[in-house]
Design goal:
The protein folds into 2 domains: 18-354, no CATH class; 369-491. 62% of the residues lie in helices and 5% in strands. It contains 22 helices and 5 strands.
Amino acid sequence: MTARHLTISWRTAAWPALAGLAVIVAHLPSFVHRLLDGDEAIYGSIAVLMNLGGGLYGAGGVDNKPPGIFWVYALTFRVSGAYQMTAIHAVGFAAMAATCLLIFKIGRDLAGTSSGILAALFYGVLTAAGNPRLLASNTEVFMMLPLAASVLCMLRRQWFWTGVLLVAAGAFRQSAAVNVLLVGLALFWLEPAGERRLPALLFVGGLLAGLVAGAVLIVLTGSLAGFWRWTIQTLVGYASASWTPGYVWSRAQDSIVPFVIDMSVLWIASIALITRWRALSVEVRLMVAWLIVAMAGSLAGGHLSWHYFIQAMGPLALLAALAFDRFEMRRWVAAAAVLGIALPAAAWWAFDVSADPLTYDFKAPGPQHQAVSSYIAAHTSPSDRVFVWGDWPALYVESDRVMAGRFPGFLRGFERGSDVPPNSWDTAPEVWTLLESDLSANPPALIVDTAAADWSDFAKYPMSNYPVLAELVANRYHAVATIDGVVIYARN
């Protein structure tokens, strides 16, 4: 083999390795903290209840998310132990890395190996260059694995598996359903006129097969009726409550604005490619459509958070990679582009390592939730149950204690502190009947009142406003400690 061939072989192997190393480094902060997001605590608390024999959407825990995330957490805890969040973060990283591989395959099929490598690198960086919630093992990062696989099958005209994988993506987040529009466009663009009936039937068959398999799994692990009640019927009210102008703007400032500005290099590159619409192949045009429907899915709920836009990061990474691979740039422009991506990513990396992921506080004296968790752990046994009033399920995880009720938090996704009546999906009349039943069956050793300290803007909703809790505390509990304003009650 000649020296030239050796050089080419080395470069061929080096670029994927360097891209993979960059993605690994970008995601290292996810292994520094036990919890990266309050949502992780919700999923973990419910998964522990499920592993104790409770049914999902029943006594085993209630949330408005589809079942996939709870299956992943519960299975991981069965293997590694309850509340082993490092294992969860490793599984989340593996899902992200596998999605990078699928993004690479899509990019390679569209424009060659270099485009695929760039697309995978961009996706890996995009999913890390933000606040700690972006790094969390959340629904979006798991949804993107089957969703990207569905798009790859769509481009390869494997319509049955496109449908199956789209349902698998929907098992993690409802917004994956928006890709049905993309598949409809793909059928129109990729299949010749007069030959679209069979591909369409295959796709519908894949959807039905996936839905049947999902229903069977829900029946085996939980409640199908509960699934419909808590994940389907609650969607309209949850979304409508989130679409108040002030609430949307406050969340947009912390999510979509920095997402667009911090990664403006990738947006500019993608837009530059889109302006060449007439020169784009049908497959690349489908990737443009994917970005559009993905942004629609990310924004649909109105409850904007940075990690919601992971759904759009896949097509954004692909379009930016295709642009960089297609356009010739001067060296100084290329250097500026690299800096425009690397500097925000490095700044967020430093922040994610040093800041508390649950409060974003990195200055002394720091947050007190760990002190509250330490008190709970020290004054209860592993077999004791605990009840936390407010929206702080992280206390269950940090204290390694099982929640006494099926609801890991209250007024989740609600504009707490506003003048809007607290009539959320998780404070509906039936919630209090179920909670009363849970607390009677599993009397908590401690009741932790975070509303007294106004944690997560909960001061407007004291336990005294809710008869089930007010009577329970007044008749059976007494205050034993106050930590950072949080009042802790023990049984009489």
